[in-house]
Amino acid sequence: MHNARKVKPTGIELVDRLVAVNRVTKVNKGGRTFSFSAIVVVGDEKGTAGYGTGKSKEVSEAIAKAVEDAKKNLYRFPLVKSTIPHEEYGKFAGSRVFLRPASSGTGVIAGGAMRAVLESVGVHDVLAKSKGSSNPQNVVKATFDALGKMRDVKAVAKTRGISVDKVFNG
């Protein structure tokens, strides 16, 4: 996460979204032991979000652990009204994602895992495409990678050492 700032969850009302639950099997001498792995995205729908994973013998316990893990890894992302500031690519392992800003009223045009992340962040209008691996964990991490690369006007102006007006007017 290049430009994303890590934030502490003090006084933030977080909404959690379950992305995927996976049944994991361990083969023992006495047979198979089943456990569950869950990935959850939490966010305040105002630019802050995080993801976490949890594993347990019970589904509900795995989800609870994932939510706790997600609350420890919150990041703030720049938003422009109800969309993202600019186009961006993100990647993690075999997953590749592409995010493009959209005009107001377009909605979130994205698949499963990406949709959960974008809605948790608070993006209401975006065009998104997932390429490569569709593994939910990798897609979530790739989406966070793309969002982490986002820069708002103030960050661009600061990097270039110029005023916000000059960013647009050259």
Can you characterise this structure?
By secondary structure, the protein is an alpha+beta fold. It has helices at 59-71, 112-121, 136-148, 153-160, 164-169; strands at 5-7, 15-28, 31-43, 48-56, 74-76, 88-92, 95-101, 108-109, 126-132. The strands form 2 sheets. Strands 1-5-4-3-2 form a 5-stranded antiparallel beta sheet. A 4-stranded mixed beta sheet has the order 6-7-9-8. Strand 6 and strand 7 (95-101) form a beta hairpin. The longest helix is centred in the middle third of the chain and has 13 residues, at 59-71. The protein is elongated. The relative contact order is 0.18.
Pick out its properties.
170 residues, alpha+beta, 5-stranded antiparallel beta sheet, 4-stranded mixed beta sheet, 9 strands, elongated
State the gist of this model.
The protein has 170 residues and is of the alpha+beta class. It has a five-stranded antiparallel beta sheet with strand order 1-5-4-3-2. A four-stranded mixed beta sheet has the order 6-7-9-8. It has five helices and nine strands; from the N terminus they run E-E-E-E-H-E-E-E-E-H-E-H-H-H.
